[in-house]
């Protein structure tokens, strides 16, 4: 039986603009593909005051996981800016599971947040 959904939303994405200590502030989309086949992802990024960045493509082989640091998401020279709130939409051609994590090291007391994305189908 397939595990997961084909459409996921992360409404509260944000890369902290600074870091302290030896760890860098970052965030990641963690995807689990439990299918035998390769899954094809289509990622869209939505902002408060500018047009979305759409159609970022990734593939994840069958029975694999992929951790995509969001600062690596780019297309046509556009990428996620630090210090700007945005939302993420992940769609796929097969069911997957999507988790979101953010490490905030702006203070010496690091903060880690992680949650399952919201499945829309």
How would you summarize what this structure contains?
The chain is mainly beta.
Describe the model.
The protein is mainly beta. The chain has a single domain, classed as Hypothetical Protein Tm1070, Chain: A, CATH 2.60.290.11. Helix content is 0%, strand content 59%. It has strands at residues 5-13, 26-33, 39-47, 53-60, 64-69, 74-75, 78-79, 86-104, 111-116, 118-119. Strands 1, 2, 3, 4, 5, 8, 9 and 10 form an 8-stranded antiparallel β-sheet that branches. The model has no long low-confidence stretch (mean pLDDT 89).
Top keywords for this entry?
mainly beta; Hypothetical Protein Tm1070, Chain: A; two-stranded antiparallel sheet; 59% strand
Rg calculated over all Cα atoms: 15 Å
Coarse morphology: globular
Q: What helical percentage do the residues reach?
A: under 10%
**Pairing-aware structural class of the strands and helices?**
mainly beta
The overall strand count is 10
- CATH architecture term: Sandwich
Q: Helix-strand pattern, N to C? A: EEEEEEEEEE
List the total number of helices: 0
Mean pLDDT: 89
Please identify the top-level CATH class.
Mainly Beta
Number of domains: 1
